[in-house]
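Researcher: Next entry: Alpha-ketoglutarate decarboxylase (Zobellia uliginosa).
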Amino acid sequence: MIKKLFKTPKNTFLGLFLIVFAISGSAQNTNTPTNFWNNVRFGGGLGLGFTNGGFNASVSPSAIYQFNEQFASGVSLTFNYAKFDSNHRYAYGGSILSLYNPIPFLQISAELEQLRINQNISYNGLPTVSENYWSPGLFLGLGYTDQNFTIGIRYDVLYDDNKSIYASAWLPFVRVYF
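Model: Predicted structure:
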């Protein structure tokens, strides 16, 4: 059912809107009013994945709003490259993410991503086939945090072995925010 919800760009953006609306409504900071930009943190993440015959790397600059010491939410851009045997995939897109620290050193994350995939497939001297399509991802992650730095692993619950840019549903990550 989740895969059907995020199958088209229209449904994906509707889902993103609903998630952001729910997050912003439930995470209102009740402290005294402050300047919005004092609570915005910039940074991003790096991703790297390897499998038999496959490689994937990604860069995701992002900005998050720190609601309080435990909860942050924001947006991210993603640029990705993958190579599986002789096939190449490039991707670009965006995501919304939420970060929750139930205890200072533990970070739980959720990220809804929508990527435009451009791939070239070639088989044993046959002509190269090009394909372009949208691919959603819903990542649930767990990481160790030390001040501005987080290292961990995330799992894509919408992973599709034939369509995903990623080599595996499990991906290690590194995030840094200032």
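Model: Note for the record: The mean pLDDT is 83.
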